[in-house]
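lol forgot to send this yesterday, sorry. struct tokens for the thing we talked abt
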């Protein structure tokens, strides 16, 4: 176990699918219980996921959790109102808005123009038949409905080669837009990432709790977590099919890597860093 005796508080940023939740059936094992234990010890657990706010909020509320949320690959940052005793613009029940990137509707015109040269290279997830959506996402019924409530990103299913994908990525970058490749889909959005939003929130906490000493932990499993993992004091890679891109990067050679996939891999990483007693 890493010696954490000099650390007062951890800010723990976690991806969900393939990290906290199983990629196959979205089970969470002991991770909800461990999250509550971490909070009781004074640490902060922050969801940093490509899922929509609606999806994350549904998961947390069903398990009696109220956590800070970074949704849609960094597009929005929302904090629990009562838990942090802060004021701000109400965004959802029990949550206030700390940050929101430009909405996908605000960049739709620029996106449409750029994508017109790549129409044969991808499918919009929203345009697929429901059966294909279910197959690609492993979601059904209400899960698909919640996943469709996207505000900051648009999902595409890439069908061409890596060279074409890099051309699209470069074209978007030149227009101050972004393409983030996830385990299942590519996410079209404005110029934000999980790592940028993580740093924004860390800076906020350090101002809010100026007397507190924080270190950051980031847990992820695939390429859309790379920026977040790079920014953290301690990075944890949960074993999954999406690991190759991460593990090929030299910067992660000293990262904690779980032997088990999610959900057990998340617990394995946390226990490597923090003493949770018999939990």
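and heres what i got for the seq, position by position
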């Amino acid at each position: 176990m890493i010696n954490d005796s000099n650390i007062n508080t951890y800010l723990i940023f976690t991806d969900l699918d393939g990290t906290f939740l199983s990629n196959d059936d979205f089970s969470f094992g002991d991770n909800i219980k461990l999250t509550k234990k971490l909070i009781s010890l004074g640490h902060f657990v922050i969801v940093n996921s490509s899922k929509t706010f609606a999806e994350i909020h549904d998961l947390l509320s069903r398990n009696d959790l109220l956590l800070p949320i970074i949704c849609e690959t960094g597009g929005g940052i929302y904090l629990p109102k009562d838990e942090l005793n802060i004021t701000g613009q109400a965004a959802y029940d029990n949550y206030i808005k700390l940050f929101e990137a430009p909405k996908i509707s605000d960049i739709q015109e620029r996106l449409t123009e750029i994508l017109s040269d790549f129409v044969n290279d991808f499918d919009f997830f929203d345009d697929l038949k429901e059966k294909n959506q279910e197959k690609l996402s492993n979601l059904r019924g209400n899960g698909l409905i919640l996943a469709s409530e996207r505000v900051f990103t648009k999902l595409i299913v890439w069908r061409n080669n890596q060279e074409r994908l890099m051309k699209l990525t470069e074209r978007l970058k030149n227009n101050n837009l972004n393409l983030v490749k996830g385990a299942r889909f590519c996410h079209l959005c404005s110029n934000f990432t999980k790592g940028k939003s993580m740093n924004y929130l860390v800076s906020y906490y350090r101002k809010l709790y100026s007397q507190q000493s924080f270190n950051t932990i980031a847990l992820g499993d695939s390429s859309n977590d790379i920026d977040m993992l790079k920014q953290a004091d301690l990075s944890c890679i949960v074993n999954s099919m999406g690991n190759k891109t991460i593990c090929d990067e030299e910067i992660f050679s000293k990262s904690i890597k779980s032997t088990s996939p999610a959900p057990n891999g998340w617990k394995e990483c946390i226990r490597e860093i923090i003493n949770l007693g018999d939990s």
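The longest strand covers residues 214-220. anyway ping me if u want another try
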